[in-house]
Specification:
- By secondary structure, the chain is mainly alpha-helical.
- It has 2 domains: 2-188, ADP-ribosylation/Crystallin J1 (ADP-ribosylglycohydrolase fold); 190-226, no CATH class.
- It contains 14 helices and 2 strands.
- A two-stranded antiparallel ribbon has the order 1-2.
- Helix 2 crosses helix 3, helix 7 runs parallel beside helix 12 and helix 11 runs antiparallel to helix 12.
- It starts with a helix and ends with a helix.
Length: 226
């Protein structure tokens, strides 16, 4: 099951999915009980793959999907809007635009009460302004976008994110998703792709995947929605 076989499940995600409540109630209940700790970075960490799935549609549809997917595990609206921002950036990048050029428009869509995103995604923001921890959606996304903004390549973006320390794997995952949309697959160093692999639990048992499997999955997802 996901609870025993999945790797590195976040505390909030585990608590929400393990609560036994209906999916559309569990995260909202967790948010009511933990109003100051429900805006974790798990939603932005997993947003890029779903953004690829929704890239063929409209930006409005992609943002709606991001909010809905985030709500399964994170009841704080900020967690959903963080995922929506990632969706918007990837959506732009896969259309040949610079993802960072899409920031002003998506920030204009944010509802009242989400001003922290304007702060951490401002062009002059730096990670040294560390009052937003990277375990929360604002600090994580701010650091990831900072890394992409100051990078000359995919590898540069991911390396900058890792070098910040802290929750480096999550920040780098978010930065990598945005950087991939900005710089393209061909910009990822082959030496990084060659050893890529992992094991996941499926209904048919454990399955090992490698780079070519991920490419095939991406192609099949895109073919299904275009």
């Amino acid at each position: 099951t996901w609870a025993s076989a999945s790797k590195d499940v976040g505390n909030q995600t585990r608590a929400v999915l393990g609560s036994g409540l209906p999916w559309d109630e569990a995260a909202a209940r967790h948010y009511r009980d933990h109003p100051n700790g429900a805006a974790g970075n798990g939603t932005v960490m997993r947003a890029a793959p779903s953004a690829v799935r929704d890239a063929a549609g409209t930006l409005d549809a992609s943002i709606e999907a991001a909010l809905a997917l985030a709500a399964v595990t994170h009841g704080d609206p900020a967690a959903g809007w963080g995922a929506a921002i990632v969706h918007a950036l990837v959506h732009a990048g896969l259309r040949g635009e610079d993802p960072l050029d899409a920031l002003p428009a998506v920030l204009d869509r944010l509802p009242a009460g989400q001003s922290r995103f304007h702060e951490v995604l401002a062009p002059d923001w730096t990670p040294e302004r560390g009052h937003h921890p990277d375990g929360a959606v604002w600090g994580c996304l701010g650091r990831a976008v900072w890394a992409v903004r100051h990078a000359a390549s995919f590898a540069d973006a991911v390396t900058r994110a890792v070098d910040l320390g802290g929750d480096a794997d999550t920040v780098a995952a978010v930065a990598g998703g945005i950087a991939g949309a900005r710089f393209g697959l061909d910009d990822i160093p082959p030496r990084w792709l060659a050893p890529l692999h992992g094991t996941i639990a499926t209904r048919d048992g454990l399955r090992t995947y490698r780079t070519e499997d991920l490419r095939d999955l991406t192609d099949r997802v895109l073919a299904a929605v275009t």
